[in-house]
Amino acid sequence: MSLPMMIKILTLFIIPIFVISCAQRSRDKAPLGVLSYDVLKYDLALDVDIEKKNISGHNVIKFLPLVPVNAIRIDLNRAYSIDSILYDEKSLNFRRKEDHAIVLFEKPLHKKKKEELTVFYSGGFVEAENPPWGKGGFVVSEDSSGNPWIATTSQGSGAGCWWPAKFGKDDEPDEGMDIAITVPSSLVAVSNGHSEGRNILNNNKTQWKWRVQYPINSDCVTLNIADYTHFGGEEEGVEVDYYILKENEDKAKKHFKEQVPKFFRAFEHYFGSYPFAKDGYKIVETPFLGMEHQSAIAYGNGYKNGYMGKDLTNSGMGLDFDFIIVHESAHEWFGNSITAKTLNDFWIQEGFTTYSESLYLRYFYGEEQSIKYINSFKNMVKNKQPIVQKREKNLLNNYDNDVYFKTALMLNTIRSVIDNDEIWWKALKDFTETYKYRIVNKNTVVNFFDSRCRIDLRPIFDQYLMFPTIPTLQLKGIKHDKVMYRWRGVIPRFEMPFEYTYEGGKNSIRRVATTKWNVIKNLSLEDINIDESRFYMNVEKKFHRE
């Protein structure tokens, strides 16, 4: 791939992520008191006026105060009017500020007592910019016959860009969500969860009902409206549904038959059963590239293998699978089931998901192809700043795609450090089962793999996540029969093994290096070939003249 082409493709990742970070900056500065409640369930009902590009409806929020509170915060873009907020059949006062509202109660709410309020709102579509990564909202388009084709995306701005919800990523409704969308009867409305059928109304409109039976991140709630055709089936005991533009039905059936069963087999092998079986699995065709909307994967990759028909990694294997189907579906395990607590923990979602791509290849094409693919990520890593920073506002201003590729390379390195695949694969599957439907941070991940793999992995995690550069293995040849070695550019007390071969690859040796010099005897520098495919590191060779 030419350098201009590589830059162009990488820009598809880098610029959108920067926009996400800027949009989330204001989201991560909420007063703590007004967020001291636990969402139990959402019940969202909307009437969508396609012609006027307008929505009106309400969201019932069932919640549990964690402390006595007299106010709570709800996010909703300033472009929408809050018509009223009802609590105990009375209208509450509220203050609008920027893209949220502070709801004021007449009396403090008691701790741990279930409560419920309803937010009524309306307004014209807030339209997304650079979907699906940038400013969130509605994506408005048409199919080839001129029928409306509408979708939402909210990763960059949060749920409040189109519906009222609690601020932040670290609270999901424990009891799930009900969603009812009313649209013209000529169209189909698709959202998350399992279909609860439809109600034919007397004004040439139809209400489509959906039920989410698991916790769901509010950013992953989606609305899709089009003249869809529907077909489906079953994979590994899970109901599978496809909502596709009618013009693409034939090629969609062929493409999905080739792609979807394969990722189910591979990912259930490595990560355990699909986490949202009661809700089923859906692919919904959207007028943007794709997104990991829970149980309703957004798909716009043109029924092609690769990333928009290209090998994103230039590895020679990027065209062996449909990137959007494999990557976004892996997010069902990492991102939707296991969710990062803050943007500083975003590497958990994106890194494990990117690593999953290599495991898909391993399952179907073998170890060699998998390792070749994951090593192609090295050309896409910047190593200019830590992935996890001490102060999250720095991360928000300087976010890049290392969360994807560097984290995946780190996981491949950790597998090699452990050097016991039975332990590694079991730990990986146990991780997805242990933290299913839970929100995690860096310490959660490190402590888990430390314990399950029976090795101190914290220095490895810290080096790759909290230090900008990767370890450099220094090799210094002494005369023709000694080689000194140590790690350079690493955190204090860092140690990690490395492997090398000699005599033309006939013999392989594994050694543990620290920041102090150690020695290999009876070999010259020229004899040693370092294995850089299983460990993500730099190698620096110098001959020392005494």
| CATH-derived topology of the largest domain | Neutral Protease, domain 2
Rg measurement, Å: 25 Å
In which range does the helix fraction lie? 25-40%
Residue-averaged pLDDT, rounded? 93
CATH domain class name of the largest domain: Mainly Alpha
Tell me the span between the first and last alpha carbons.
Answer: 44 Å
Write out the CATH superfamily name of the largest domain.
Neutral Protease Domain 2
Q: Count of helices?
A: 10
User: What is the β-strand count?
Assistant: 29
Can you tell me the number of structural domains? 3
Sheet having the most strands: 8 strands, mixed
**Uncertain stretches:** 1-32
The outline comes out as: globular
Strand order of the largest sheet: 5-4-8-2-1-11-14-13
Strand content: 25-35%
The second-level CATH architecture of the largest domain is Orthogonal Bundle
Signal peptide: 1-21
Pfam families: Peptidase_M1
Domain Peptidase M1 membrane alanine aminopeptidase: 260-464
Keywords: Signal
Describe the protein's architecture and organization.
The protein is 26% helix and 33% strand. With 546 residues, it is an alpha+beta fold. It has three domains: 226 residues, Immunoglobulin-like (Sandwich); 239 residues, Neutral Protease, domain 2, CATH 1.10.390; 73 residues, Immunoglobulin-like, CATH 2.60.40. The longest helix is centred in the N-terminal third of the chain and has 23 residues. The two termini are 44 Å apart.
